[in-house]
């Protein structure tokens, strides 16, 4: 294995001890490691890069190749963002309050006595994240890298991400991520002598076993690519299409164990390692 590619889909995955151990082991063996930040919440990319400096010594960080979906799609063809979906920064003429922090500056803009927008800047005063608020809740954000807007996030009334728009370096829309929800039924069956008890679930005894049932609403993402108007019913199908383009024959692919059941079926010929 000449190089290893790690697909990171969440900050939680990045914080796994197994992630750190496998990256360091590969680097000790002189394997080139590339980390793909593939979180749909693009505002997590900057936090992920900062976390790298906490996980690894400076000399290892310097050798890591860290790329994001924005980097991979920067040259892809796209379409113009409609006026209704563009992020507008007209609030920047309003009165503002600046708050200094070690990692940068937060600027809050005030209208009618309330915070109407917030801008997070890096130490060079370049924007990282701009967010508009309505009734104290975020409604839309623009995400930046090196001063360039590469993503637009929209939120629903419950403060959940509803859509994420990935932009190329010309500011065109390349990929749209659409959040959906669906009810999911959950059932656990175990022996009557089991010490594991789900006190928040209703239980019933069935043929010498205890059965717990519950339901919850889970989110999933539909993906639309504007390169060729392909439509992915699952974000994992989209991830697979990206990986097929960037994982070379001499590369090893490492994915979060939690992603394996959903991603692996889309890559039947790919040797996959878990972390």
Describe this protein's structure:
The chain is of the alpha+beta class and 275 residues long. Helix content is 20%, strand content 44%. The chain has seven helices and 16 strands. It has helices at residues 11-14, 17-28, 44-55, 58-63, 69-72, 235-246, 260-263; strands at residues 3-8, 32-37, 65-68, 96-101, 104-111, 114-121, 127-134, 137-145, 148-155, 161-167, 173-191, 202-206, 209-225, 231-232, 251-255, 272-274. The strands form two sheets. Strands 4, 5, 6, 7, 8, 9, 10, 11, 12, 13 and 14 form an eleven-stranded antiparallel sheet that branches. Strands 3-2-1-15-16 form a five-stranded parallel sheet. Strand 6 (114-121) and strand 7 (127-134) form a beta hairpin. The longest helix has 12 residues, at 17-28. The radius of gyration is 22 Å and the shape is globular. The relative contact order is 0.15. The model has no long low-confidence stretch (mean pLDDT 92).
Q: How many DSSP-defined strands?
A: 16
The averaged pLDDT comes out at 92
Percentage of residues in strands: 35-45%
- The level of helicity is 10-25%
Distance between the termini: 17 Å
The number of helical segments is: 7
Q: What structural class is derived from the secondary structure elements?
A: alpha+beta
Largest sheet: 11 strands, antiparallel
Overall, the morphology is globular
Radius of gyration, Cα only, in angstroms?
Answer: 22 Å
Low-pLDDT sequence parts:
none
SSE order: EHHEHHEHEEEEEEEEEEEHEHE
